[in-house]
Amino acid sequence: MRVLVLGGTGLSGPFIVRRLAAMGHEIIVFHRGEHRAPLPSGVRRILGDLGDPPGELRRLAPDVVVHMWALTETDARQFLELFRGAAGRAVVISSCDVYRAYGRLQRLESGPPDAVPLADDAPLRESRYPYRNKQGLGIDTAAYDKILVEQTLMAQRELPITILRYPAVWGPGDPQHRFRAWLRRMRTDTEIPIQEDFAAWRWTHGYVQDVAVAPILAVLTDSAANRIYNVGEAPTPTMGERIAEMLHAAGWRGRLIAAPAAELPESERMPYDFAHHLVIDTSRIRAELGYAEIAPREQALAATIEWELGEAAATRS
């Protein structure tokens, strides 16, 4: 099978590429050259930008094209213009930030909490452009909206598409550094305060090597076409439990102390409505595609801790 991966050099992409290549598939990676991830020698690289794609991309006629970086409605339209009639199927990475619970968590809209876990057909956000007023995310925050990406792609049937809604992805290479601040504090503190509503909040995560399994399964399964799947762990712990697990795996024997937001320094207060949990139901992808985690938990924690502390040390030096 010929598989074209758009992106593929960031967080989960290299795992996808290496695994498909090891299975004997012909893999071509098209990217902008911002990351030089080590990939198998047989993988062909093409450099460029999808805003002005080289003509050879369409001529490749891939059996499946995997789009790792469709962030805006424009991205989705350009993708369809390029690959309709030129690819057999497509797998596109989306996000669980499409759900209404996320909009209410962010206080972009109001209403009672949705029942969790959120199934693949749970209500979507009524608001749009959830990151428009945020800085430093490394994306086009003014135009980003995965709902518009999904709607554009699924409104047509010329190119069969599988949508994979990623959770919060953690592990080595995580650009959000979800655990760095907590790991830094363990060096000096035996007690660490944590905002109590955040500590009790549940947010589905997925280790980078585990979530990479989902696109591989979607590539290999023809019946995944025109389906939407949530990806992530099961079950989902509270954030307090998650952070405590990470700190204790790093050797910290202190205590997290839940405290009201008003008792924390203003810089540490989180302004979200944590009544809205983002617990994602992943039963569909597990039942239909056989999705399951592959990374041993202890190894995942150790690799993340080593990377985060190493990155932090490099930043200080």
Task: Give the total of domains.
Answer: 1
CATH class bucket = Alpha Beta
The counted number of beta strands is 11
CATH superfamily: NAD(P)-binding Rossmann-like Domain
Largest sheet: 7 strands, parallel
What can be said about this structure in brief?
The protein is built from twelve helices and eleven strands. The strands form three sheets. The chain has a seven-stranded parallel β-sheet with strand order 3-2-1-4-5-6-10, with helices on both faces. A two-stranded parallel sheet has the order 7-9. It has a two-stranded parallel ribbon with strand order 8-11.
Provide an overview of this structure.
The chain has helices spanning 13-22, 56-59, 73-83, 100-105, 146-154, 180-185, 196-199, 208-211, 213-220, 239-249, 283-289, 297-316, and strands at residues 2-6, 26-31, 44-47, 64-67, 89-95, 161-166, 168-170, 191-195, 205-207, 228-230, 255-259. The chain has one domain (2-175, 205-236, 279-295): Rossmann fold, CATH 3.40.50. The strands form three sheets. It has a seven-stranded parallel β-sheet, with helices on both faces. Strands 7-9 form a two-stranded parallel sheet. The chain has a two-stranded parallel ribbon with strand order 8-11. It is globular. The protein is an alpha/beta fold and 317 residues long. α3 runs parallel beside α5 (146-154).
